[in-house]
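Appendix B. Raw example, untouched.
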Amino acid sequence: MKFSVVVCGKNEEKKINKCLNSIIQNKPDEIIFVDGNSTDKTVDFVKNFTDKIFVRKNSNLTNDRQFGIDNCKNELIVMIDCDHILRENDINNLIKDLFNFKFDLIQSQLEIYEKKSLISLAENQSYQVVHNIPGRKKMIGVAPAVFKKEIFSKVRFDDHITKTIDDTDFIYRLREKNYLFGIGNVKIYQDHNSSITQYLKKFLWYGKGDGEFIQKNPDQFFNMFYHLLIRYNFIYFLKSLFKFKLIAIPFFWIQSFTRIIGIIYHFISLVRK
């Protein structure tokens, strides 16, 4: 079955070769790369894999995702991020999961590629606790994932979303339209080897995105804080204990605390404008 792969990135010269090499192993019909105006050698490296390269200035990830999707020629679209590394047949197996589960969108399970630090091991355990459970879900991410192109006639990525909450906003609107989605059986590597400082910056950025989502959807205020305060600090704590994934516990707590700070920062910045 033919499928298109969309990859969006900016200044990813350290990871893009490994990512695209792994995609090629899966024999895609086309690879579309949307570049966010990189200043390094990302685009030069991508030219070795595809000629469908779009360099976009003054854009953002949300907009770039939709732009890439709009330029796909196939009815099955695979969204991959630059830090994902696939095994051979991962995409075909995820497509099989899509149809076996009768979903409109399916995300893979995730595993940290090289668990060199305590923080990367903690993130990997967090996936084992809450993410790597096949079946229908109320919320998933949009990469690595397979989409039926037809859903974009009803729901599109909102280009007003400027931060990393693009997946939450998109999935929230898919759910309102009664589309079915969830997690498959395939596990795809994620090349995360960041320091604790980089993780904190990422969590803070997620929190600012959470604030942007609440700003757009005020009725989700309590759900968001229930998610960050109750799920992260209590429900995930109990699940981590039950599965004996103890390093995941402080990972959830730190992420919860930092994302809440990000939400507060977002709304303070609005008041200051």
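End of appendix B.
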